[in-house]
Design a protein that fits this description.
7-stranded parallel beta sheet; 41% helix; Rossmann fold; 7 strands; alpha/beta; 270 residues
């Protein structure tokens, strides 16, 4: 199958200008804050209609309000990605609202770390894998099943991390293992479903300009000083730089890019 993406099938009014995602239906998990919110706004700025998923309705509605100001449609769907039934409902709502699911970005994730492996609790280990790995699996399974039945196919981008398959640090064993699993899962799923018109790739960010990259008690100014020594680029990545990588992989310009894991970390894992 050769996808004819994007196909304008949105139930909402067309965006005010043509773009790579004009008329496309896009799902973003973890869209209530940080990188997820930036991703949603990035797709909205290029004409997409958004389904926003995350645990907190209030945060998602804040993202939707920002998207509304940009003139594109957004549907809010509070979802725990570790719950397979909830993920099934999420994908069904996206299609019900916008008529298709053309792009999905599986961004929802959690961070636990700061201590050696022997001090990692069963609860933290379970949370890391329930959300970061099993949550991505649940999303992939539902998204692929829907996309491969569409004439246009679809594109999926998973958010992994430069910590995992690409780089390691002491005290982060559980998080590293979970994100390495996302990278491997992305490649395996991509091979399974490329012939069905579903392209699957990953982006592995390093420290970005979000709260997650701040150490306990650290200010953005403190982080900036730390990154001068830790990153070849000398700074954290902006959310816009990571969003640009995701939008490229989701776009028709990357139509033969399958199973890639694009590292965006200022050269730290080079």
């Amino acid at each position: 199958m050769t996808p004819a993406f994007p196909v304008p099938r949105s139930a909402t009014a067309p965006p005010p200008f043509p773009s790579r995602f004009s008329g496309a239906s896009v799902l973003v998990t973890g869209a209530g804050s940080g990188l997820g919110r930036a991703l949603a706004l990035g797709f909205a700025a290029e004409g997409a209609s958004l389904t926003l998923a995350g645990r907190g309705r209030e945060a998602l509605e804040e993202t939707a309000a920002l998207i509304g100001a940009a003139g594109t449609g957004a549907a809010v769907s509070p979802t725990d990605v570790s719950d397979p039934a909830a993920v099934g409902r999420l994908v069904a709502r996206a299609v019900e609202r916008f008529g298709s699911l053309d792009v999905a970005v599986n961004n929802a994730g959690v961070f636990r770390g700061g201590a050696p492996l022997t001090e990692l609790s069963d609860a933290d280990w379970a949370t890391l894998f329930d959300v970061n790995v099993t949550g991505v699996f649940h999303c992939l399974r539902e998204e692929i099943a829907l996309m491969r039945a569409q004439p246009s196919g679809g594109a999926i981008v998973n958010i992994a991390s430069n910590l995992g398959a690409h780089r390691r640090f002491p005290g982060l064993a559980g998080y590293i293992a979970s994100k390495a699993a996302v990278s491997a899962l992305t490649r395996a799923a991509a091979l399974d479903h490329a012939a069905e018109g579903v392209r699957i790739n990953a982006v592995s960010p390093g420290p970005a300009d979000t709260a997650m990259s701040l150490r306990p008690g650290e200010s953005p100014a403190d982080r900036a000083e730390r990154m001068k020594a830790q990153s070849p680029l000398g700074r954290v990545s902006s959310t816009e730089e990571i969003v640009a990588a995701v939008l490229h992989l989701a776009s028709p310009a990357a139509s033969s890019t399958i199973g890639a894991d694009l590292v965006v970390d200022g050269g730290a894992a080079a």
